[in-house]
Design goal:
Length: 274
């Protein structure tokens, strides 16, 4: 059985977020999928079931659990499918509880993914653990079904934050994202020809991921948040993990969002599952 490892939301090796991808005509046993994800020890291993050349189902596993949505592993899986499994330029993922993701690949390799917006609402009442776990002052706290999204005053505070992961783990399935608007003076992450609108980091220690390198799913909330604040539809986001990654986000009609990025193949491997 073949397995791919792909760096997502980057066009350079050893950047972005690595994901493993396994494609087949049927699902593997759940226990085997969990063991493979644990063995890979990546933030996500994606399993793709072929329906036909343009339609697929997808599931995502961290080293400790199955999750309901993963953006970077969807990007990695799309890259693999366009590379080796279909000649179509547009495919569809049929996703439990989330409907259909339409994904297309442009001529330059950029992959566009159409996701539902998972909007976050501002909350005044949030766990004291959050305040204790984060060392930098923050402005606002938002919450969606996935995570607390904490808005910081300054990009530098997002970059410098060293959270108490043991405390964040006590939040259970609710993860934690931190974010700030990028000021043009924030040259530390602004390339000469590229200006980001926002920067973020993402922590999910209860799911076996202390810090996720680049998280497509949480940008279905972060990008709409900044789009509203900045009064614009297009948001260029940077996730400031050690590896780093770029997410091109566009707010669409009907509570949909297009999140796009590049991917780079790192490895193809043969699995021996006797």
């Amino acid at each position: 059985m073949k397995m791919y490892q792909v760096d997502a939301f980057t066009n350079a090796l050893f950047k972005g977020n690595p994901a493993a991808v396994i494609v087949g005509p049927s699902w593997l046993d759940d226990g085997l999928m969990k063991n493979l994800a644990l063995e890979n020890n990546l933030s996500e291993t994606a399993f793709v079931k072929i329906i036909d050349a343009e339609n697929y189902e997808i599931r995502w596993f961290t080293p400790t659990t199955e999750v309901d949505f993963c953006g970077h592993a969807t990007l990695a899986s799309s890259f693999v499918l366009f590379k080796d499994f279909t000649t179509a330029s547009t495919i569809q993922f049929h996703v439990k509880n989330l409907g259909i993701f339409v994904v297309s690949q442009q001529a330059d390799g950029k992959i566009k993914m159409n996701f539902p917006v998972r909007r976050a609402k501002k909350v005044e009442d949030y766990p004291e653990i959050l305040t204790k776990a984060l060392s930098k002052p923050f402005k606002n706290v938002y919450l969606n079904s996935q995570a607390y999204i904490v808005e910081y005053h300054h990009v530098q505070d997002v970059l410098d934050e060293v959270p108490n992961l043991e405390l964040l783990k006590q939040l259970g399935k609710i993860r934690t994202a931190i974010t700030a608007q990028v000021n043009p003076l924030d040259v530390v992450i602004t390339a000469p020809d590229l200006h980001y609108d926002c920067v973020s980091r993402y922590f999910a220690p209860a799911n076996g991921i202390d810090e996720d390198p680049v998280t497509g799913s949480i940008h279905t909330a972060i990008a709409p948040l900044w789009a509203e604040k900045l009064n614009r539809q297009d948001i260029l986001a940077y996730q400031a993990s050690a590896r780093g990654g770029k997410l091109y986000c566009k707010i669409l009609d009907d509570e949909r969002i297009e999140i796009s990025g590049y991917a780079k193949l790192y490895m193809q491997a043969e699995l021996y599952l006797d």
